[in-house]
Structures are given as C-alpha cells and as structure tokens.
C-alpha cells in the first residue's frame, strides 16, 4: 500500500543519516580541511571536484554543479523518487515509518499510475513473447535479422511484435479481467468511432518498449515491416508517457554516460539499437521530436558532452538546425551568470557522410570510424557558421546575412575568451573586419543582458506602469558586465544568508531582497527568510523543504563555502548592494531626464533635476553612515 511519510519522520531520517557514510559507499572520499573530496560519480573527471560537508550534511560538485543533501544524492545516484530514497535511508538507519493511508484521491492517483505501469509491463511481455515464439512473429524476426539486429539486442531491449489483427492484445487482457478503461488510458487500445468497442493501437509492427530511467515501461513505439505509412507509431501522451521528456534507451545508457561523460543523441529506434550493439552504449534517441529543454535537463544529470547525430540528407540537416535552435534557445540560459544554474554542456553536431544514417554508417564502417568522426564533430557555433556560409554564400549580401544569423548565438556566449575566438573565426571565414563583427555582437549582447532586469519580474500592472520609465533606463542602459556583476552580488548575499544566518534580521530590515533582479535568487532568499535558520548547519533541512532540484543544487553550491563572515563585513556588503541598486533605479532615470532637459534647453527643469540629484546623493550618504555608524 502507498504510504505518506510524515514531516517529522523526514527530519528524523535526515538527522540519523550521515551523508559522508552514504556517499562513501560509491565514492572514495578523502579529508580536506573541514570537508571531504572525491571524484564525482555523476560525471567523468580526473581531478576531484566533488565536495561533501559533514557539518552541513550537503554535497556539491564544482565540476558539474550537482548538489544537495543526502536525499538528493540517493535520488540521483540510484534513480529513486524522494519517497523511495527516504524509505531506503529509513530502513538503513532503523527509522520506523508508520503506515498512514493516503487520502482517497491521492491513493487513486498513485494506484492508477501503478496499474498503468503493470499494464505496460504485461503488454511488453505479451509483445516480446509474440516476437520470440509465435508463428506469426516470423516476418518480424526476419525483418530484424535483415537489419542486423542480434538476438542479444532483442533480449536487452525487450523488442516485441504486435500481431496482425484488430484485437489480439485487447482480448488477452480481457480474458485476465483487466479494466478496459485503464487499457484505454494506457494508449494500448483505441475506441471505435461507432462506439461498438475497442481495437489494438499497434498491429503488425515491430514493438520497441520505451523505458524510463528506472527501467519501467512508460510507452511503446511500433514500426511497420514494409514501407507503408505511417512508418512509425508511438504511444499517445499518457499519465506515464511524454515524448518531450522521454528518451529511448536512457535506462541502458545512463551508467555509460556517467562513466564517459559523453552522450550520443540520435533520432531513431534502429539507429540507437545499432549503436548499442556496436558498443556505443552511451547513446539515446529522441522519440519523434527534436531535442527539448526537458531532454537536456535529464541528460545533464549523466553527461556534460552531448553529440547530436544526424543523417546526411537534407531532412537530417534541417533536423539538426531545428534541434540547435531549440537547444540554444533553452540551454543558453544555463551559460549565463544572470541565471542561477551553471550547467555547461559541451555540445557538438555530427552530420554523417552522404548516403548514411547512424544505423547504416556503423554497420558499414564500425564503431572506431564512428567515434573518430564524432571526435572531429564541430561545436554548435562552428556548425552554424558552416550552414550559414553554405546557405548565403560569400557575396556582400551573403556576408551581411551570415552575420545577422549568427549575432544572437555569438552574443549569448558568456565565456569572453570563447566568444572572442568564435568572432575571430567568423571574421576570417567571411573576410570581414573583426571589429565590425564585434561591434554588432556587443550591441546584441547589451540588449540581451537587459532583458532579465526588466522583463517578467513583476506583475503585468507594475510592468505597464513602469513601461515609459524603463524605456528611458534602457536607452541609457548598462553593459553586460555590469549586469553580471550585479548577479554575482546577489549570489554573494544568498551565500552570506546561508553561511551566516545571524545577518537575516538585517536582510529583513533593509528589505534587501526587493532589489534582486534574478527571480530565482530572490525566491531562494525569501525561502531562507521564511525558514529562518539559526545555524549554518540547518542547510540540509532547508534543502529538504525545496522541491526544485536546480534550486537545491544552487543552495548547496553557495552554502558549502567557508567564507569568514562577520557582522560588520556583512553590513558593509549589504550597504553597498542596497545603495547601488537604489542609485541604479532612481539615478538612471534621473540622468536620462537631465540629458533630456539639457537638449531641450529647459533651464528651470534642469536646475530642479540637478538639485534633486544632489539631495539623492546626500540622502544616500546619510543612509550609509546610519548603517555603518555605531555598529
């Protein structure tokens, strides 16, 4: 029976469990000052960057930015849900969890999910057996054999066959008294239009069970044995299956991805099976969709290097470009300092030689040739350059279009050295002065850097009221470096709140969080104030109260440091922050008004504005002295 774990039991488990003991079961830890360090289990590295704090009962990897408390570690390491991790730790440390029944609604939701998983498991067995043993399965066996798929691969991936006919699966489940309603919810059967019954969704197709990271079947894919259409058919969206979050082969790829730090991403079932069969086990496939932000977030748990593999034909090239557009739009934020995540996936694009897809290439040339081609695959920016040059040519008009197409991706690169190298590469490639390209990129970068400060922070009415003022501030705008500096300031304040909670009353008094420009950091700050820890050692308990894995990681990364905080230093930091933000919000607008008055030769207004500016400076100085005065 599904059970509810009371909050006091969660605290008891957390207090009983020792994160150093738990992590030591899979990571060789060595003492380093107050903390322990070791090689990260979540990405490939040679120099230890994985840090565990015994005092704070948290972990953080400075290489891949993963972090959290003992529950987070168990969930990520073993692929467990939070309740599963909690029950595992409770059993290990002798904490008794009483059975407290869920509400009828909660119980039904969990029960339905478990029933759907059971239906999928049984359907997977039904299809697999039909492929292996039935007379009707011979054409499917012959098809897979012609495609070079071995018996081991068939067994490893539990491939199956849906026999030709309208209701083989439905009749089998009906005999075993499985609910037709649940079968329909699973997507395995479809109601007839005349409402006279149901028929099987998959008929006369090779079946590819789709597993989640916990090796549970969440859906199915089916391929015809000839060239009829639709060639592929997938399960519909269900309570278990979402194609934008699911990756074929992830259950068998995740460990190898962790070990190598690399994942190959292909588009088809058979491409994926061919790679695994040839020893390229750190590979997954998307399911009828381009790579999504959810896919990227899932994969960055296991690998930092992503190689997107596409066919050589025009459709393959278009798929690569669509995928890059989605990937760049969603993932670029992970590279910017104004977003709290510091995920930095190294992404490459491999377009195979003419006439090949991953399946045909690896069967013809072997895994060594494939990995060699992958090792020379270009990064996203270089690939975009190649495509733009082929698309527009190197005429004067073509060069202008190439720069326009590449300006936003180049401007979004936060690493200044990498950005400079790419700008130089583009300038040399198309024969345009590097300074001209750089000027265009700086203009775009400044525009991009302003967006987080003014877009989407407040409710619509507030945005509307501030619209005219924001235009003036933006026209007078800040450089990207100033924005990034401000976000670093905010991160430092959150670190201070976590490591030196004695300062929290002053944070409240000064209302410092209202000056934050990063929504996520502001949210974390408010959570800390609400939790009101009295010691830095309560960070693990704070993490347990936050649902967002990304926020848990950020808190761990900021809390694990051992800066020497004191009240005077904290007050000085807060004073500087509040003062700078007050000046920014009022001063920028005032400066714009002064310039406008100067241009219009409105001397009376100019005098009033200059007096106002003087008074603001005096008031700011008094506030600073009041904060630092007698403390």
Quick structural overview:
The chain is of the alpha+beta class and 631 residues long. It has 26 helices and 15 strands.
- Reading off the top of the CATH hierarchy, the class of the largest domain is best stated as Alpha Beta
The shape, in one word, is globular
Q: Kindly state the percentage of residues in helix.
A: 55-70%
Write down the domain tally: 4
By DSSP, the count of extended strands is 15
What integer is the average pLDDT?
Answer: 81
User: What name goes with the CATH superfamily of the largest domain?
Assistant: DNA primase, catalytic core, N-terminal domain
- Span between termini: 58 Å
Secondary-structure content class: alpha+beta
Described by strand count, sense and barrel closure, the largest sheet is: 5 strands, antiparallel
How many DSSP H or I helices?
26
Q: Which structural traits does this protein have?
A:
631 residues, alpha+beta, DNA Primase, Chain A, DNA primase DNAg catalytic core, N-terminal domain, Dna Topoisomerase Vi A Subunit, Chain: A, domain 2, 26 helices, 15 strands
């Amino acid at each position: 029976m599904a059970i509810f774990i009371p909050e006091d039991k969660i605290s008891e488990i957390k207090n009983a469990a020792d994160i150093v003991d738990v992590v030591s079961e899979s990571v060789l830890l060595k003492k380093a000052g107050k903390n322990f360090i070791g090689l990260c289990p979540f990405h490939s590295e040679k120099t230890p960057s994985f840090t565990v704090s015994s005092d704070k009962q948290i972990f953080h990897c400075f290489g891949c930015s993963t972090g959290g408390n003992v529950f987070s570690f168990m969930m990520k390491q073993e692929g467990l849900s939070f309740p599963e991790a909690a029950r595992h730790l409770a059993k290990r440390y002798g904490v008794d969890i009483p059975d407290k029944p869920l509400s009828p609604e909660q119980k039904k939701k969990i029960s339905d999910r478990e029933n759907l998983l059971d239906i999928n498991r049984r359907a997977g067995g039904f299809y697999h057996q039909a492929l292996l043993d039935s007379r009707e399965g011979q054409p499917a066996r012959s098809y897979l054999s012609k495609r070079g798929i071995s018996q081991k691969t068939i067994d490893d991936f539990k491939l199956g066959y849906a026999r030709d006919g309208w209701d083989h699966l439905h009749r089998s489940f009906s005999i075993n008294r499985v609910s037709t309603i649940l079968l329909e919810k699973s997507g395995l059967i479809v109601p007839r239009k005349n409402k006279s019954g149901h028929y099987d969704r998959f008929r006369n197709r090779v079946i590819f069970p789709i597993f989640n990271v916990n090796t549970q079947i969440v859906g199915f894919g089916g391929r015809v044995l000839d060239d009829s259409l639709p060639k592929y058919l997938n399960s519909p969206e269900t309570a278990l299956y979402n194609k934008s979050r699911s990756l074929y082969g992830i259950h068998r790829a995740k460990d190898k991805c962790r070990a190598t730090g690399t994942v190959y991403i292909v588009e088809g079932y058979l491409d994926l099976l061919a790679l695994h069969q040839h020893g390229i086990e750190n590979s997954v496939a998307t399911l009828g969709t381009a790579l999504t932000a959810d896919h990227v977030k899932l994969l960055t748990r296991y690998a930092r290097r992503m190689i997107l593999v596409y066919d050589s034909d025009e459709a393959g090239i278009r798929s690569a470009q669509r995928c890059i557009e989605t990937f760049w739009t969603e993932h670029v934020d992970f590279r910017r300092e104004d977003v709290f995540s510091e995920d930095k996936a190294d992404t490459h694009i491999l377009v195979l030689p003419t006439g090949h897809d991953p399946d045909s290439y690896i069967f013809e040339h072997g895994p060594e040739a494939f990995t060699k081609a992958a090792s020379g695959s270009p990064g996203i920016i270089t690939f975009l350059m190649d495509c733009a040059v082929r698309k527009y040519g190197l005429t004067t008009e073509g060069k202008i279009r190439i720069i326009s197409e590449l300006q936003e991706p180049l401007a979004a690169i936060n690493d200044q050295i990498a950005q400079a190298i790419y700008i130089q590469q583009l300038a040399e490639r198309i024969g345009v002065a590097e300074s001209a390209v750089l000027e265009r990129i700086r203009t775009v970068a400044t525009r991009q850097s302003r967006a987080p400060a003014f877009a989407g922070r407040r409710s619509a009415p507030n945005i509307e009221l501030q619209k005219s003022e924001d235009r003036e501030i933006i026209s007078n705008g800040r450089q990207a470096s100033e924005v990034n500096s401000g976000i670093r300031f905010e991160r430092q304040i959150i670190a201070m709140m976590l490591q030196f909670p004695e300062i929290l009353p002053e944070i409240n008094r000064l209302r410092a969080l209202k000056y934050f420009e990063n929504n996520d950091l502001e949210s974390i700050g408010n959570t800390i104030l609400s939790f009101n820890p009295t010691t830095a050692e309560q960070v693990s308990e704070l993490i347990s109260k936050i649902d967002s894995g990304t926020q848990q990681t950020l808190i761990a990364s900021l809390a694990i440091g051992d800066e020497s905080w004191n009240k005077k230093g904290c007050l000085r930091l807060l004073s500087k922050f509040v003062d700078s933000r007050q000046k920014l919000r009022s001063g920028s607008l005032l400066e714009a008004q002064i310039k406008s008055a100067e241009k219009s030769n409105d001397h009376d207004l100019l005098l009033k504005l200059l007096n106002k500016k003087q008074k603001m400076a005096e008031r700011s100085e008094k506030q600073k002295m009041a904060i630092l005065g007698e403390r």
